[in-house]
Amino acid sequence: MYNKGLYNDWVPKPIQLLLIVLLLAVVMPLGGVYTGNISYLVSGTGSLTEYFMWANYATTIGMGACMPVVLRIKMRFKVRDKMVLLLILLGLLSYVNATTLQPMIFVATSLCIGFMKMMVTIELFLPLMVMIGNRGMFYGVFYTFVLVMNQVAAYYAAKFSLLYNWQQFYILASVLCFMLALIHWIFMHNKYFALKVPLHYIDWLSILLFISTFMFSAYVYAFGRQQDWLNSKNIINASIAAFVSFALLSIRQLTLKRPYLSFRIFTKNNVQHGLFMLFWLGMFLGTASLQTTFAVGVLGYDQVTNAGLSVLMVPGIIMAGVIAVFWFKKEKPLKMYIFSGFAAMTAYAIIMYFSMVLEFNYDYWYLPMFLKGYGMCSLFISVWFYTLDKLEMDEMLAAIGLVLVWRTFLAVGIFSTLYSWFQYRFQVVAVGDLAVYMDGMAVSPQNVAANMKTIQLNAVIIATKKIFGYITLAGFGVLFYVITHHFGAKRFRYFRFVRVLGGKSVIARRRLRERKKLLEEIKDAAGPAV
């Protein structure tokens, strides 16, 4: 009646692994919008860029909203029925995106895609964990594969949009989802994972409050600059709505017998320090907006060339994954691996600081993008491993949605918003400083227009360079923090001699170890949600 695998027993193991890899390759990069084709969506729909930034945030929020209930949903339905239905729905949502011109449709479908994508991917983690065995090695393989697929998907989304139109990539994603649904209808078993559990214990109102909290926050992040922050009533109202929603969500969790979220794990030392490091990881990941401004606005790259810069991160991502596998296999302490990730990110910021010139060549991108890829992958693996280490399954599942949203949305969104604000302010100051070269003695009235573009580009370079300088200084501070943090190591060790008086205690400890191992497998399956 129960089967903890995914496929029928007659399916060979190599074919099962191939099907899991295909499913990961299609579903993990799936989203309502792709960073590579946002500019084509803007020109094709005639809508503001901010709507599609909002939709991009919505995918992560949907994944975080699903995370606390994903295990209950997993055990409620038969594997084949659930997987096939989800793949069909994901295909339909991609088709809706291919045929609509309304930006709010993209926001709604992105939220639903994130929610459903989490239900699909949780099915894949347990079989992969069983195959790989070691939790850290699993993180190294999984994150490497997913991050590589994300960069490749962003590049081909831009390329499809240039060669054909932006709808074609959504059509391709839709067709792939339908094909996978048909394949899995044939090969998957039609049994439950474990004992069937009811869905009426899920508090849907808490899910709505969670979504409302972070969707209003995402609106502030996406539209803040366009609507001039607190000078806009919409921004003020969205901020108030986000605060009220989170307050109601927190109060409701205190009154429920089975709360949707738990805040207890945030009192643990490793979780606090892990969230702190994820926050500073967001500082480095938020530089994507600065990099795009420099590449497209200053150097004049087209969207495909700009998306190709993300592909340059792939060698660094792969190297970080390979090192992670050997690092966790040897069971070495995490400190130096985390330090290497932040050091790579800081080195990326230093190189970009000195690269802010109009004569920047495309070949100069290889080293900084390699370092950024290595830093991103290594920190995703190591900091996430450290944050969720030694947590009980019930505690982790009840709070992982908040941790996921913190890592992928809040931290990155906060710094992206700060960068856009500072970049505007620094440009105004730079134009004022450069105005001294526009007087009648240096530039004749006939040449003012010809020199205006150069002055504007130099103002952008000055502003971006200044931001990268501050990022570098903050990076050195983070490195100092990492090198001085203990990462769970005991400062003082002592030996305790215990004499076992009876055989029952040995049996009891063995049972506890077996139960702990089972819980670890389930926890690890939920841990690497992206």
Mind explaining what this structure looks like?
The chain crosses the membrane at residues 51-71, 83-98, 169-187, 199-223, 235-254, 275-301, 307-328, 337-358, 364-385, 397-422, 467-489. The structure is a single chain. This protein is an all-alpha fold and 530 residues long. It has helices at 13-27, 38-45, 49-66, 70-76, 79-99, 103-132, 135-163, 166-187, 204-223, 233-255, 269-285, 287-298, 303-311, 314-329, 335-354, 366-387, 393-434, 448-484, 503-526. The protein has 19 helices and no strands. α7 crosses α16 (366-387) and α15 packs antiparallel against α16. The longest helix has 42 residues, at 393-434.
Radius of gyration: 25 Å
Number of strands: 0
Mean pLDDT: 85
Main sheet attributes: strand count, strand direction, barrel closure: none
End-to-end CA span:
31 Å
Structural class: mainly alpha
Q: What share of residues is helical? A: over 70%
Low-confidence stretches: 491-503, 522-530
- Broad shape: globular
Name the features.
mainly alpha, 0% strand, disordered C terminus
Q: How do the strands and helices of this protein lay out in sequence?
A:
Blueprint: H1 13-27, H2 38-45, H3 49-66, H4 70-76, H5 79-99, H6 103-132, H7 135-163, H8 166-187, H9 204-223, H10 233-255, H11 269-285, H12 287-298, H13 303-311, H14 314-329, H15 335-354, H16 366-387, H17 393-434, H18 448-484, H19 503-526
Helix pairs in contact: 1-6, 1-8, 3-6, 3-9, 3-17, 4-6, 5-6, 5-8, 6-19, 7-8, 7-13, 7-14, 7-16, 9-10, 9-17, 11-16, 11-17, 12-17, 12-18, 14-16, 15-16, 15-18, 17-18, 17-19
